[in-house]
Amino acid sequence: MNLPSAPTPDPLPSPEPPFAAALHAASDKPERFACDAMACTFELYLFDKPAGYAAQAAQVAFDELARLEGLLSRFRPESDIAQINRATRGDLVPIQPETRDCLTRASELYLATGGVFDIAFRSDPAARPRRDASGVPPLVFDPRAHAVRIQASGLQLDLGALGKGFAIDRLVALLRTWGFARALVQCGQSTVYALGGPSPGRGWRLALRDPAAPDVALGWVPVHDGALAGSGQFLHGAHILDPRNGQPVASHRAAWALAGDAATADALSTACMILSPEDVAAVCSRQPALTVVLRHTPGATTLSAYGAAAASFELATPRG
What we know:
Elements: H1 20-25, E1 31-37, E2 40-46, H2 51-72, H3 80-86, E3 92-94, H4 97-112, E4 139-142, E5 147-150, H5 163-177, E6 183-187, E7 191-195, E8 204-210, E9 213-223, E10 226-232, E11 254-259, H6 262-271, H7 277-286, E12 290-296, E13 301-306, E14 314-315
Antiparallel strand pairs: 1-2, 2-6, 3-5, 4-5, 6-7, 7-10, 8-9, 9-14, 10-11, 11-12, 12-13
Helix pairs in contact: 2-5, 5-6
């Protein structure tokens, strides 16, 4: 039986990850593997296992990543999401369990954010979910058929603000089954899941990077068995739209969310770019997440921290 070959590392060095300081300070070094998927680079930093074993685990993880991209990407014509987007009212579209789970999580986050996190924001207005109880949901799950029934034509789903975090969570679950108790999994330098810690009782020290100057840390967050995700407007311009009016967001320059899973952190870091500080605080009171909002004022940069874990953040500038 031939074992899977090790994933090929990136030919060019990637930017240092937000946990670079923790890696440099660690007494032992991990095995690193990288793979391009979902329009970014996923990286695995695996500790405490022989190099060959780590390579096999990484290959299995990246095979699973490719499978998930084939289910969730709206740019893949045969994906579950692309087939939903081509369907019309009354159609029954078969989907895989992972797609169902991702759509269920998106629905939960839609409700948690009062409709601000909306994967259907690209849809025709008639296919958009309503923000009151009278609205007809655009999708109804049929568990016996392992499918969803389309409730309105013109539905267009986009998992861009959730799919990468969802994939990270799946990779972390797989690494656990392979016996890894310490690992760092990141995607596109914006979302990181920290499995275990650098040593017993300690969390990985992750940097909050200034979106205008990625080599500058605005603060530090200790993370143990959790995820940190960031969203901003500098790297890709005004690409985050408010689904309520279709306009680019202007409330904040960047936001980070700390949560127990990467899907939640990924989604909430995007949603909190849109929400007011008061609404951010309300969301944090209902979710196991901490959000830090970066706001630029005429004379200074102000960081505001909300949520139960706010005291653990080491902010480089005064809190707003």
